[in-house]
Design brief:
The chain is mainly α. It is built from eight helices and no strands. Helix 1 runs parallel beside helix 7 and helix 3 crosses helix 5. The longest helix is centred in the N-terminal third of the chain and has 52 residues. The radius of gyration is 29 Å and the shape is rod-shaped. The protein starts with 12 loop residues before the first helix and ends with a helix.
């Protein structure tokens, strides 16, 4: 048997995690008793210990990116809320009675929500939804039309919906204060895996026993799968480059 070749360094951070998890699951499915070989067992234990740390490091990266996206979306939402307020207050000195009536009532309404942006993300999101519902009520919708500011309400609704989607889908916060060095953890995890894979390959050639053959098969299943993924990705990159040259 041979060890399926794969360029592990070409795996991105997420795929590295998936690759290791794939190996762990494939080995578990093989029903091989790891403790039969103490050297292999120690290497496997090291992988099992390092994999959760690496996963936490990835979650920190994801949580950080999501937090940054939330802040950007929140600032956009605040701007749209401010723009709506300004649009209403533009009619402060209008001589038109219908516009003055609409302005006075909407001014009173908007002031009840003026502190919404000081609340938590969740509370502010709900407050804006409530505010928009009130603006579109049978009583206030005609006033929006008189002031011609429906588009500002639509814009606020859109950014609030976008923010809400980001808020719901964000990664659960990593509670530990520990900052994980993702690059170092990835290198350590892959080095342990490389050592384990080489050990299994050497022992399979030397011992010719079912234990090492089944373990090598478990190794190769993930290696074949991810080697194919890398080949497809490389093929796509080369095709795109050829299109650019043409």
């Amino acid at each position: 048997m041979k060890k399926q070749p794969i360029n592990l360094s070409a795996l991105n951070y997420e795929d590295t995690h998936k690759f290791i998890i794939r190996f762990i699951k494939d080995f578990e499915s093989s029903k091989v008793r790891a403790a039969t070989d103490a050297n292999f067992n120690n290497l496997l234990i090291n992988i099992l210990q390092q994999a959760p740390l690496y996963e936490k490091a990835l979650k920190q990266i994801k949580a950080k990116k999501q937090a940054e996206a939330l802040l950007v979306a929140d600032r956009d939402r605040d701007k749209k809320f401010f723009t709506l307020r300004r649009a209403i207050f533009m009619y402060r000195y209008s001589d038109n009675l219908s516009e003055q009536e609409a302005y006075q009532n909407l001014k009173t309404l908007i002031r009840t929500f003026v502190d919404a942006e000081k609340n938590s993300f969740e509370t502010e999101t709900q407050a804006i939804n409530d505010f928009i519902d009130l603006l579109r009520s049978s009583e206030n919708l005609p006033r929006l039309k008189v002031l011609n500011i429906e588009q500002y309400v639509n814009n606020l609704e859109l950014v609030n919906s976008t923010f809400s989607t980001l808020l719901v889908s964000r990664e659960a916060e990593v509670l530990e204060d520990t900052l994980y060095a993702t690059k170092i953890l990835r290198k350590k995890l892959l080095n342990i895996y490389r050592e384990l894979a080489e050990y299994v390959f050497v022992m399979a050639k030397r011992k010719h026993t079912l234990y090492y053959f089944k373990t090598l098969t478990a190794l190769n299943e993930g290696r074949i799968h991810f080697a194919d993924l890398l080949a497809k990705e490389q093929g796509c990159i080369m095709n795109n480059q050829l299109k650019i040259v043409k």
